[in-house]
Design a protein that fits this description.
188 residues; alpha+beta; six-stranded antiparallel beta sheet; 6 strands; 48% helix
Length: 188
């Protein structure tokens, strides 16, 4: 049987293909950190925690911490600390907020990365709706992901690369925090 006699079959096939393409495009635009941020928020909510901290296993002496403001934002810091044993002890004691404060205020100069994740939903290259822009601060460099690369005096390609690099690193940081939050939730 030929498809020429079946216009509804052709239209149905085209609709399915279009839906698949649109779905793939939407997924490609999602940040890598979005799914991890969502899972971290769910884990923190379930454990009734507003902060979490962990050592960075890839970089000795570096720690990461998050302050979670439910429904509003994740404030995430990663930095080296001069007295790593002090932070290790605080993590063991579940004093996660103290680790966050210590990393914000007394980290090794030039080692700090600070992320403001508006909406607690992962980094976005451009804010949606009424949301404020996410930001990434590292050393003396600060980037606001507001989608306006011209205002930042960079090319669109450089803006996109900066966002993708930040998003990759942020997803890894969130994954480490998620692992620690799951351990804390299960009592390990």
């Amino acid at each position: 049987m030929s498809c020429a006699g079946r216009p509804s079959l052709i239209l149905g096939t085209v609709a399915v293909c279009l839906a698949a393409v649109c779905s793939a495009l939407a997924a490609a635009q999602d940040s890598k950190s979005a799914l991890v941020a969502k899972e971290l928020v769910q884990t923190l909510d379930a454990a009734k925690l507003d902060s979490m901290a962990a050592p960075d296993p890839a970089t000795p002496g570096t720690f990461i911490a998050v302050l979670y403001i439910p429904g509003t934002q994740l404030l995430v810091v990663s930095a080296k600390y001069v007295a790593p044993q002090l932070l290790t002890d605080k993590i063991t004691s579940k004093d996660y907020r103290d680790v966050y404060v210590d990393l914000q205020s007394a980290s090794v100069r030039g080692s700090k990365v600070f992320v403001t994740d508006q909406g607690a939903d992962g980094l976005s290259a451009k804010p949606s709706g009424d949301n404020a822009a996410d930001s990434w601060d590292e050393g003396d460099k600060s980037v606001t992901f507001d989608g306006d690369w011209k205002k930042a005096k960079v090319t669109e390609a450089d803006y996109t690369k900066t966002f993708n690099d930040a998003d990759d690193r942020y997803a890894k940081i969130l994954s480490m925090l998620l692992t620690q939050a799951k351990k804390a939730r299960s009592g390990s």
